[in-house]
Amino acid sequence: MDVEFKCPSCDQILTVDDSEAGLEIDCPSCEESIMLFFPDNGDEVPVDLDDDGDIEHAEDFDHAPDLSSDDEESSTKKAPGFTTPPPIKPPNATSSAVRSGVESEMDPEEIQLARKLAESAQLVRDEVAKAIVGQEDVIEQLIIAIFARSHCLLEGVPGLAKTYMIRSLSEALSFSFHRVQFTPDLMPADITGTDVIQEDPATGRRKLVFLKGPIFAQMILADEINRSPPKTQAALLEAMQEHSVTVGGKTFPLEEPFFVLATQNPVEQEGTYPLPEAQLDRFLLKIRIDYPSRDEEREILDRMARTTLPQPLKAVASSEDILRAREIINEIHVDERLKDYIVDLVCATRKPSHYKIDADHLIELGASPRGTIALALASKAHAFLNGRDYITPQDIKSVAPDVLRHRVAVSFEAEARNLGNDEVVELILNSIPVP
Fold first, then answer.
1. What is the DSSP-derived secondary structure letter of residue 267?
2. Are 369 and 382 in contact (CB under 8 A)?
3. Which spans in 210-335 are helix H?
4. Domains and CATH numbers, the chain
């Protein structure tokens, strides 16, 4: 159904479909970004931000957007809401802190904890920004993966500060950090550790002692992971999935939170070993990092053209904060229709024709059920970082490209048409109706 409202900036009358509730649109007259929410009384209320990034007229909102239909059983399930929104202002924030008004399922202590953790997430981004110029979206995606208890694959050409970014993030989170440079002669024991013979100085008897490898840290940088053969790459599988390492019949748990970030160079292919699909699927996100803008590169020059090493960043969050944030993220509300939307997006990568999308000939392999779980978790973490305890369609569409690009294998025909994973995923996102 079409509804009309007035743009708060230029008073232009805009007509949109009520299915666009929760989405951000640009006013065609003044080009201001507006977030649409339609309260239960039927009055259309656009969301706009003031100069400080806060929501104007926030008192007009009484309810979070209810995406369920009246004739479904799920219509009785309201989205839980923080009593007051977390004071978090992420880059390019829109209506991230809209108050629900629905009585929260959390007790007051949990609400206070959620607010504190949301503030900590923003502090982490601000602290990393002291070392890294730009790349705000990349940093946000890395934090999403950490909060979702998963891992990231970062792809970019050399010289874009991938290693420095991860080290800076580990400092801001007070994580222990190890870097492993993957080379063709790297062995699995070089990563996990190995048993060595040592002599007991007291008895003089020799015994096997396990020496832990660099995998025993909270944040692992697997630099240029595609430089090592599959046997070595597979040494990460158990650690990434079970968060443990088994050597010599003994299993050693890894310290939580545990996070693997692997990098690879998309340009050089000689002497590389592409990651197998089974390992690619274990990365929550595949993030592509691009060159900075001219202004950003000018600032990089001012900061880094020195002979002295940069000072370490201040720790603004702890491991306990991350573990508690994960518990809060588990309580993020997902509307039943948004669950169906997530499943439809993933299923459409396998059988596009079932959704009237002419793309069967473009896809060789679709996303697995692990992709469905990853899309839901990443959407929840994205909502949490934006100060909400419910997800919107925009949360899903924001993280879907990074969640699905490495889980969809395109066919030879798609490659002949110069269509890559991103183009196919974008086609599916644009074709599946938003609830």
1. S
2. no
3. 230-233, 237-242, 277-280, 294-304, 319-330
4. 123-319 (3.40.50.300)
